[in-house]
Design goal:
CATH architecture of the largest domain: 3-Layer(aba) Sandwich
Strand content: 15-25%
Number of domains: 4
Strand order of the largest sheet: 5-4-16-15-14-6-7
Number of strands: 28
Shape: globular
Largest sheet: 7 strands, mixed
Number of helices: 23
CATH class of the largest domain: Alpha Beta
CATH topology of the largest domain: Rossmann fold
Oligomer: single chain
Length: 688
């Protein structure tokens, strides 16, 4: 028997846990802890524990598929690649769009960005960060000069007080939740704000239950109390920030007194005062947030408000502090770093900057140049264009994304995708989106490749190949290189290994410049920025100055605004959405993992006990949830753990897809949809 253990990095959330895959006779059959990991210290959550189960699922794609007369037929790689090249050669650059992926490696995302801008000459490339943390990138970049988590995961446990808002950390990022518990064991306090009494809430010293969409008001109220009582860090404000007087003029309005914010948020004024005082007097405070902050039409304002609070208290640039945006997907940070966005190349070098444009044009050496130096469509804008202006975008190439479950207002998204003349989907399963494609290409999963991904804390870590892929499935970057070669650009994609791709990334990306595969072998890997090969990496950002032109953090005076859609007589409840511990995003991998799928086989809608009684709804009763965009039949979960007037649905389940209901109204800057607040009604299902 041939038995070996191969260390790799988890393909699920952005924490970046590592474990060892158990390989028997060249097939992955299990996983065991990796105790050397500084991130998870040998522990894994349920998803990580069973991350091997989907690898050899019988549902894996094994060969290219081409749709003929409405049905998929198996095809050779040569046939599929030739068809793709022929079709895309026939389109103008602005008639093509590409969607990259937070699930795939840095190498794959870089290759897709290069294919889009170099081979297709299109400016339209984006990925699902648009749907989860684009407001983090935009908001933190605007105030700090860098749109990433400021601190490391291990130093969370050095905090004296941790404030979590917009993140059910103990379910969404359990191993980060473990660091919170380690801090509590050392005496730290935990303040938690959420509409639901989640597992995270159960560990809190102060739990603030609030109405979804009141985040700016709550954060302004904290600052109101802090400044009113003289608890602000005057030295930090004077030496490290700009704009304090303008901020103060807004937050000190009576609108943001605890009594008025109680009316907006539902949090008792006394609780707001107590939480603000405890957080301000801690001396070392870490703020953690996730999509509960970002997925709003005011997502950028929400993010800037978290930064305002941390700057006012001087909780930046040292251990146990920071604005810690917890990324939802394994490589959403890396996909952004790789320039899989419509406005930047790698390392956030702006496409509209002539110097950056020339740098990449010269380095890549395309004989006919690269895409114009102009911003392209965000994925949310793209879907609207597809639906409302059929024919403007004719060719769509999607790698590892499933917008048919992940996008808001799914009926609208489906309408748009069906308008595409020619669509390619590259994935490991035949997803709901792949079913609409003209060509489907079988890719490899994390266990079948070497490569890198970048976690939420900017730690760049390795995947290591544990087995061969099924059938004739190929590496994502290799498929992209084959498409580029068929388009006439073989020389520009002449990589032999994943390491070759990474070396090109490092050459062109200042924050990755000092990294290579050899340096990434050590257990702690490296945090960017890592500008030189002798640089140790940067676990904590902004220790001396911010990345803004003058080195100062920018305080932003912000007024609270209500969500785009609020309850009324017809739709009297607020609907919010999120994840559960057993599943991940669109369920493509977890629902093909028998242990996880058995644990939670379908979705639900949480309804407060009092609301359910008034509606005559029983626990586990199949009911109908309806918004202005659609309706779904879904089991009721009657519980005291959700605020009266608020309802919650997980978004993993296609049979009761929450995103048939969610609002596609967008933040004007980040173009992120308002997944976290819309108006909903529920009805009993009438018997036939």
């Amino acid at each position: 028997m041939d038995l070996k253990f191969v260390q790799t990095t988890c393909p699920y959330c952005g924490t970046g846990c590592t474990f060892n895959l158990v390989v028997k006779n060249n097939k992955v059959v299990g996983s065991i802890p990796n105790t050397r990991s500084p991130v998870n210290l040998g522990k894994t959550c349920p998803k990580g524990t069973y991350a091997y189960e989907f690898v050899n699922s019988k549902e894996r794609l094994t060969t290219p598929l081409i749709k003929k007369e409405g049905q998929f037929v198996e095809a050779s790689w040569d046939e599929a690649i030739a068809l793709i090249a022929e079709k895309f050669k026939g389109y103008k650059p602005d008639e093509i769009a590409c969607l990259s992926s937070a699930r795939t490696s840095n190498e794959d995302n870089y290759a897709m960005m290069k294919l889009a801008r170099g081979a297709f000459k299109t400016r339209h490339i984006d990925h699902c960060a648009r749907l989860c943390h684009s407001s983090t990138v935009a908001g933190l970049a605007a105030v700090f000069g860098s749109g990433a988590m400021t601190n490391s995961i291990p130093d969370i446990e050095e905090s004296k007080c941790i404030f979590i808002i917009g993140s059910n950390t103990f379910e969404q990022h359990p191993l980060i939740g473990r660091r919170v518990m380690k801090a509590k064991q050392k005496g730290a306090k935990l303040i938690y704000a959420d509409p639901r009494y989640t597992p995270t809430a159960k560990q809190a010293d102060i739990y603030l239950q609030f109405k979804s969409g009141s985040d700016v008001a709550i954060l302004n109220c904290f600052m109101h109390e802090i400044i009113k009582n003289g608890w602000e860090n005057k030295e930090f404000i004077a030496n490290r920030t700009t704009g304090f007087e303008e901020l103060k003029a807004v937050v000190m309005k009576d609108d943001y007194s605890p009594e008025n914010v109680e009316k907006i948020s539902g949090i008792p004024a006394a609780q707001l005062r107590e939480a603000a005082e405890i957080y301000a007097k801690a001396g070392t405070g870490a703020l953690l947030y996730s999509m509960g902050i970002t997925q709003h039409t005011v997502g950028v304002d929400n993010v800037k408000s978290t930064a305002n609070l941390q700057m006012v208290l001087g909780y930046l640039g040292r251990p146990g502090c920071g604005v810690n945006a917890l990324r939802g997907q394994n490589n959403v940070q890396g996909a952004c770093d790789m320039g899989a966005l419509p406005v930047v190349y790698t390392g956030y070098q702006k496409v509209i900057d002539p110097v950056a444009h020339k740098k990449f044009e010269d380095a890549w050496g395309f004989p006919d140049g690269i895409a114009e130096g102009a911003n392209g469509y965000e994925v949310t804008t793209l879907i609207n264009v597809l639906a409302d202006n059929p024919g403007e975008i004719k060719g769509l190439y999607i790698m590892g994304e499933n917008p048919m479950l992940s996008d808001p207002n799914l009926h609208h998204a489906e309408e748009g995708l069906k308008n595409v003349e020619f669509m390619v989907v590259q994935d490991i399963f035949l997803t709901e989106t792949a079913e609409l494609a003209d060509v489907v290409l079988p890719a490899t999963c994390y266990a079948e490749r070497d490569g890198t991904q970048t976690s939420t804390e900017r730690r760049v870590q390795k995947w290591r190949k544990a087995q061969d892929p099924p059938g004739v499935a190929k590496l994502d970057w290799k498929i992209i290189a084959d498409v580029a070669a068929a388009m006439g650009y073989a020389d520009q994609f002449a990589w032999e290994t994943s390491e070759d791709v990474f070396n090109e990334i490092a050459e062109l990306t200042p924050s990755y410049h000092g990294m290579n595969y050899e340096r990434l072998e050590k257990p702690e890997a490296l945090h960017w920025p890592c500008p030189e090969t002798d640089h140790p990496g940067t676990p904590i950002l902004h220790t001396q100055k911010f990345a803004t032109p003058d080195g100062l953090g920018i305080l932003s005076p912000l007024e609270w605004k209500a969500p785009a859609e609020v309850p009324d007589a017809e739709y009297p409840f607020v609907l919010t959405t999120g994840r559960c511990i057993w599943h991940w995003h669109t369920g493509t991998m977890t629902r093909n993992s028998p242990t996880l799928d058995t644990e939670v086989p379908t979705g639900w809608i949480e309804i407060n006990v009092e609301d359910a009684k008034e509606l005559g709804i029983e626990d586990k009763e199949l009911i109908k949830a309806i918004t202005r965009r659609g309706e779904v039949e879904v089991p009721a979960k009657v519980t005291e753990d959700i605020m009266k007037g608020v309802m919650f649905m997980p978004f993993h389940f296609k049979e009761c897809a929450a995103n048939k209901l969610t609002n596609d109204a967008l933040d004007p800057i980040a173009k992120i949809p308002e997944f976290k607040a819309c108006a909903v009604k529920v009805e009993k299902i009438k018997e036939a």
